[in-house]
Amino acid sequence: MKGKKYSYVLVSLLVFAFLISLSTFLMAKTETKSGTIISVISGDGSKGTVIKIDLGYSDKLKEKQLGWVTKDGDAIAYIEIVSLESHKAVALVTTHENVEKVTTGLLVSFKVEVSETKPEPRPERKPVKKYPVQPEFVITPQFDDAGSFNEGLAQVKIGDKYGYIDKTGKIVINPQFDGVWDFSEGLASVKIGGKWGYIDKTGKYIVNPQFDYADVFSEGLALVKIGGKWGYIDKTGKYVIKPQFDRANPFSEGLARVEIGGKYGFIDKTGKTIINPQFDQIYDFKEGMANMKIRGLKSGFIDKTGKYVISPQFNSVRFFSEGLAMVVVEGKRGFIDKSGKIVINLQFDDADCYSEGLACVKIGGKWGYIDKTGKIVITPQFDRSGSFREGLAIVRIGEKRVYIDKTGKYIINLQFDGYGHFSEGLAQVKIGDKWGYIKNPLK
Fold this sequence. Notes:
Low-confidence stretches: 1-28
Shape: globular
Radius of gyration: 31 Å
Distance between the termini: 74 Å
Number of strands: 42
């Protein structure tokens, strides 16, 4: 009896092990196997095209296996393996979305069973984004002028007066002002009866109109002009730095550029002179440095003590943006890092600052974009190009303007008489003589 009992236990254990094994079999998972198109054997890149793929080693792929081709993360075609040879395969394009042509260098992917115990499933079809899209109006054209959204509100003009709207197009501050600026740090400067003051987002005056000019608040202070001199106030309207400068700029990184007797220097928020007025031409601090030019000589950079950190050696420079600055030497543009080292060679006919990881550059009369290694990521093909904002940039081809993404793909064709950059998900556009707002299709 004892032997039978042990046999029963042994059988039970074997059955249990079999069930565990079966469970593992039933829960077999898939993985994605990827490769690259190395040649187009025949066809124009659309349906019916035959391609050759380098897959690396894999014993899981089979003839008639289905897969897909991607470009910039989007599926543009679906394929079927015709034959396998070592780590290479010949495949046929079975379905094409007519968005992009299948070419060499594109990524291909297949779903394969990790355990090879189940039939190969059909690959999941990824949604294909079709661009360019028609612009989606969030606020219909109805204003005589319009600005970008900032802190949830945008300035608009109706007749000869300015007010503010929210993102639904609702007027939240009635048009009543002769001039306005965007909201910044909760307040906006407005002009009425020839004088400037400040309102909050309800339209209530926080600082009554009294200045000849009033700029936006920056770092807690606002630049104002009265009696021909410039000074700074706080958000109660109290002078923190009395009007005394011939010219001045808003605060940036704790310092403000001011002019005294035809020379520029910098003050702190108490009005104390940090860098004596000595420069003929200098700009605000960006990323800890200010670009300057000695009249008739060269351009370089100083730090916040006024010390030269990159000696004047360039014909011209732009401010640092995302760690790099554009410089000009003998008509050619390149980029330097904060040590002054040229990290992208002087090779461009024109160039602009980096924005969202890319900089627009001009080569041979056309504009394109480079990344921070200097690699061309969007081939020069435009008659003019602008900076990226919220993933989109405005470029011009002849008289036509379009919004492109960071791959150079056309996202929205501009059919408008006026246009602006995207800000807080919306961009102002003009049809006829009226302005409205469209939605960023990438958001």
